[in-house]
Amino acid sequence: MTTVQSPIPVSIQNVGIIIIDKTGILKTLTVKDYKEEELFKKCGFKKPDNFSKQHEWTVKMDKKKYLIAVFAKTEGKANTENKYDFPPPIDTTLFFGSCAIVCSVNSEENKTVFTLMSCTIALWDKLYEKLFGGFEDLVATSMEDEHEVDELAGVPSDKKTKDGYLKDGFVVDSDSGDDEKEYNSSESSDEVDGTGSDDDDDGAAGLVVEDIGSELSSEEYDTDSSLSSSK
User: Fold this and answer.
1) pTM here?
2) Helices marked H in the chain
3) Where are the domains of the chain?
4) Whose CA, among 1, 29, 168, 217, lies 20 to 30 Å from 102?
C-alpha cells in the first residue's frame, strides 16, 4: 500500500505560496523562511487560533503528482467570510479571512515523497481546472451546435407549426390575427383611459350627457312630468 507523506518541513528558504484574500483575489507571496506553523502570520492573523490545514488534494498532471494543501480558518467575525470558490469537497465550507495554498510535488527518486515547491497562480489555475474536472470549452460547444443535424428537417411542413415546431398535441399554431386584434383593442382602451388630461375628461363627460339627452323621447319626458304632477 502506497503511503502519501505530507511535507512537514522545519524551515525552507524562499518558497512561493498563494494567498487568497477574503474578496477572492489571488496573489503570490515568497516566504524567505518557510515554517508551516507560522503560515497564519502570512494570512494576516495575529494568533494561530483555529488556523490549520483544511484539506489536501492530490493531482496528476504533466507526468507529475502534485499535493496541494489549503490552510484557513473556519471561525471568524461577520463580514470577513472568504468569497473564493474552492474545489470540492470544501466548496461548501465557509472560511474566514485570507487563506493560503501550499504546493508540493513528488520526487523522481521516491514517488511516495513530496517536496515543497513554489506555486504560481498559473500553475494553480491548471490544478484548479483539473480539480473541477475541466471546464466546458464554449467555442467547441458553439461549433458543435452549428453542425448539429436538424431533427425536423425531414418533417413535412403540414406537420409543423408556423414557428417550425412539431405539432404534437402540446404545440399548436396560435391565432395571431385574434391576438393582434385583442392587443389593438386593449391598446386603444389604454390610450383613452390613461393618457387623457382633466380637460379631456370634462369634455368627454359633456358628450356623454349630450348623447343621453338626445336619446330621450318626448313620450318618456311627458310620462315623467305627469308622475310629478300627480304627486
Assistant:
1) 0.56
2) 39-42, 121-131, 138-146, 176-195, 198-215, 218-230
3) 12-131, 156-198
4) 1
